[in-house]
Design brief:
Layout (H helix, E strand, L loop, with lengths): L2 H9 L3 H33 L4 H33 L1
Helix pairs in contact: 2-3
């Protein structure tokens, strides 16, 4: 018996509901990380005047925000899928 099934049997919850809740909680976390990285990207990009280090920090923030946005969308879709099952 794996952890999710043991947890579901104790709390009388379906395994799919537990997965949906976990995906949704992690979706909220990745959404916030993506938004913060995007805001930092805009601020650093506005004050960057050709500095190489700030360019790479901006590039990293942009990549984190893009990956975080894609991951949060995927987690949201997965949470809705498991909630309906």
């Amino acid at each position: 018996m794996n952890y999710l099934n043991a947890f579901a049997s104790v709390n009388k919850m379906n395994t799919n509901e537990i997965l949906a809740q976990r995906f949704y909680r992690f979706f909220k976390y990745t959404r916030n990380v993506a938004l913060i990285a995007f805001i930092v990207f805009f601020i650093l990009n506005a004050i960057n005047t050709g500095n190489s280090i700030l360019y790479w920090i901006c590039y990293g923030c942009l990549m984190v925000s893009i990956v975080g946005a894609m991951q949060s969308v995927l987690l949201y879709v997965l949470s809705k899928y498991y909630k309906k099952r």
